[in-house]
């Protein structure tokens, strides 16, 4: 039971009457309270029961971060009397649900559709917390209230800001694939056709037998191989929780991984996902030739950084123990933290690079670069020294990785996605993939 503003006002008015009447008018108090109690009881009896109301959910089940979803709620009043009151469809604060409450008036036996707009501020699953309905009596001085569990979930997917780079990268892929005039030669590429030699062609691509049968020099054209396997590995350990700008490093890594996944799928390659810190947090395996990008997006949505140290031994074992026994491109999105690399990944590189081609992609912090260039006062000089040391360690780890045959992409958040896509295209152009 709930007491409305009208009942409070009536009680206040009765108190004033008693104060005016004085002690001799104590009977007036009991009279007023009795009348008020009777009105409340009548109002409660006439208010339709909120427990008997039924609900049906509908609407969006997934959106990208930054977009809005609409969740509908159909409210059915089985009572004979009109239900008037307030309804609140409650969600977690991060869902940013609007409006917070709805005024309802549903005739007996009628239904009403109510919409709530969600604009989530974080990735993951947003769960409905419950629907609270307050049924107000016809006098408006008392109400009956009940909370119903009406489950619904909206999954907020990564925003995929780097999608704007996809058309340009696809154009480069079409050039490699022979749909434009440029065709390349590589050790791992497939023979396509013959054409006349033009200045700038690799002399190793000259077909001497065909040239002997013609008046001019003839070269072979090649197209990149398809159906290669790409394994995207997201490091979800504590280093991925560090914020670069206003966004966790893990989210920047996801954005770069999505661009590469979409690009590789268009190139005809098979893309898989592994999220790992001390155990597998998410895994998507390829199933035939269909695109796995939608499954990868769904798997990324609920991922959050774990405040634990990574287990590189377990990660390498999981990669080597996968379904694929053929050579594949392993793209590890992590941080070039000197201590973590030297104590973790570097000692285990030989086992991984012996079987697979490894590409390490890391998100650099532009703020560190700004600090390294700052001068002026003593504090700026100390900060510049610390930043320069961090950058030096980062360059040293990069050089060490490359000595082990690892490809490295180190770029700031605005450039990490296109730089990783370019590295993939370059590998295909060189015939290494």
UniProtKB/TrEMBL annotation:
InterPro entries on file: DUF58, vWFA_dom_sf
Pfam family, one: DUF58
Keywords: Membrane, Transmembrane, Transmembrane helix
SUPFAM superfamilies found in the cross-reference section: vWA-like (SSF53300)
Transmembrane regions listed in the UniProt entry: 7-24
Record's keyword annotation contains Ribosomal protein: no
DUF58 domain ranges (all copies): 194-372
Gene3D superfamilies with a match to the protein in the record: von Willebrand factor, type A domain
PANTHER family for the chain: BLL2464 PROTEIN, SLR2013 PROTEIN
Protein name (record): Uncharacterized protein (DUF58 family)
């Amino acid at each position: 039971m709930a007491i409305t503003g009208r009942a409070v006002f009536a009680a206040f008015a009765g108190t004033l009457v008693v104060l005016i009447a004085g002690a001799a008018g104590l009977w007036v108090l009991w009279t007023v309270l009795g009348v008020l109690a009777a009105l409340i009881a009548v109002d409660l009896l006439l208010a339709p029961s909120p427990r008997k109301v039924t609900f049906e959910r509908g609407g969006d089940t997934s959106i990208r971060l930054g977009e809005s979803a609409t969740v509908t709620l159909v409210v059915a009043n089985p009572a004979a009397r009109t239900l008037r009151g307030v309804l609140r469809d409650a969600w977690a604060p991060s869902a940013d649900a609007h409006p917070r409450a709805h005024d309802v008036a549903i005739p007996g036996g009628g239904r009403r559709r109510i919409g709530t707009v969600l604009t989530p501020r974080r990735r993951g699953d947003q769960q409905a917390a419950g629907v609270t309905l307050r049924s107000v009596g016809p006098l408006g001085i008392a109400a009956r209230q009940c909370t119903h569990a009406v489950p619904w979930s909206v999954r907020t997917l990564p925003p995929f800001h780097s999608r704007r780079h996809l058309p340009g990268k696809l154009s480069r892929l079409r050039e490699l694939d022979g749909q434009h005039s440029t065709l390349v030669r590589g050790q791992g590429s497939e023979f396509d056709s013959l054409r006349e030699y033009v200045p700038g062609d690799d002399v190793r691509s000259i077909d001497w037998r065909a040239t002997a049968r013609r008046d001019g020099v003839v070269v072979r054209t090649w197209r990149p191989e398809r159906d290669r396997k790409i394994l995207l590995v997201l490091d979800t350990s504590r280093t991925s929780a560090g914020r670069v700008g206003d966004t966790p490093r893990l989210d920047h890594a996801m954005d770069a991984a999505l661009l590469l996944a979409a690009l590789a799928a268009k190139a005809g390659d098979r893309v898989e996902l592994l999220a790992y810190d001390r155990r597998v947090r998410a895994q998507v395996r390829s199933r035939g030739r269909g695109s796995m990008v939608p499954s990868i997006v769904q798997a990324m949505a609920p991922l959050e950084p774990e405040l634990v140290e990574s287990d590189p031994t377990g990660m390498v074992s999981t990669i080597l123990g996968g379904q694929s026994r053929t050579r594949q491109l392993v793209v590890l999105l992590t941080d070039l933290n000197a201590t973590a690399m030297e104590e973790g990944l570097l000692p285990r590189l030989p086992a991984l690079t012996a079987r697979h081609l490894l590409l390490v992609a890391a998100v650099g912090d532009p703020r560190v670069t700004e600090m390294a260039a700052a001068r002026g006062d003593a504090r700026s000089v100390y900060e510049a020294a610390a930043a320069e040391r961090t950058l030096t360690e980062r360059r040293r780890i990069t050089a060490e990785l490359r000595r082990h045959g690892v490809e490295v992409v180190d770029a700031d958040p605005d450039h990490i996605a296109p730089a990783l896509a370019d590295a993939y295209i370059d590998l295909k152009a060189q015939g290494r993939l």
